Amino acid sequence: MASRMACTKAVIPVAGFGTRRLPLTKAIEKCMIPVGNRPIIDYIVQDCIAAGITDIIFVVGESFEQLKQYYEPNLPLEKHLAQKDKTAELQAIQELGQGVRFHYVVQDSYQPYGTSVAVHVARDLIGADEQFAVICGDQFYYHQDGSSELDHLLQRMAAAGTRSAMLGVEVPLEETPNYGIIAGSPDSSNADIVRYDHIVEKPTTPAEAPSTLNNGSFYVLSADVLPYIAANVEREMPGEHQITDALNDYAKAGHALHVFTASGEYLDCGTVDGWLAANNRVIGA
Fold it and tell me: Which domains does the chain possess?
């Protein structure tokens, strides 16, 4: 078995306004909405830490405070908990970001909008020969045994010998018109591995869906994707600058981007229904 990839950085875009969750997100940063007794973002952060990530790059909007406060020390609170002998509570808040460095990069309102832009503004923190994860900040993958989705992916990538990969989430065929569906083909070196080609955004009918894999918005990428992301950001376009468009160009240029089916349960907290389902799953486990 090949050795595991040395992926130590993760880019987590959290700069969006969270318009699908208004009016709540007018006052609460979307990534800080709670699932159980923790904010959405902490499920992602703990998943990354468990996978060996040492640097987490948050791409934030201009008005962000709650996210930073959550991971910064709160000395008066720690003193209060110590005085009240609330050892478990004190340990819980002290361990939140243990073993990882947090970086905050601002994606301001003068820049284009979209997931490509979030990665582009973080590019100076990524070395030319590095792999890095990109994980959207309003979703996470739940494992009842507490294991890490990113760790599972890195292990599978090492076994397959691939440097860039993404997760696909299985959805029922009849629901494929609701999603961005992955189109791919067997890799020439390993027929058991899917090689990414492009995304079919919300197929008109299930018959037009190229697979039953929804784009899981969870990637591990080699730094050689960054020029394609830069080109996407610099291109004039009417809508958002999506990372999937950059990955389409990356794949067309002959770079291998493999698709692995998610091993955990995908919990999308970007909608009220999805957030409610995530709470029911986590609290009821």
Answer: 9-284 (3.90.550.10)
User: Does the pLDDT at position 99 exceed 80?
Assistant: yes
Residue 166: is it exposed, middle or buried by C-beta count within 10 angstroms (0-12/13-18/19+)? buried
Q: How far apart are CA 59 and CA 216, in angstroms?
A: 19
Gap between the Cα atoms of 148 and 146, Å rounded: 7
Residue spans of beta strands (DSSP E) within 3-88 = 9-13, 34-35, 38-39, 55-60
Q: pLDDT tens for residues 166-222?
A: 999 999 999 999 999 999 988 767 767 889 999 999 999 999 999 999 999 999 999
The yes-or-no verdict on residue 2 having pLDDT over 80 is no
Report d(CA 274, CA 169) in Å as an integer. 15
Question: Which residue in 210, 207, 213 sits closest to 174, CA to CA?
Answer: 207
pLDDT at 11 (0 to 100) = 97
End-to-end CA distance of the chain: 34
Burial call 2-12: b when 16+ CB within 10 Å, e when fewer: eeebebbbbbb
Alpha-carbon separation of residue 192 from 187, 258, 259, 260 (angstroms): 7, 11, 11, 10
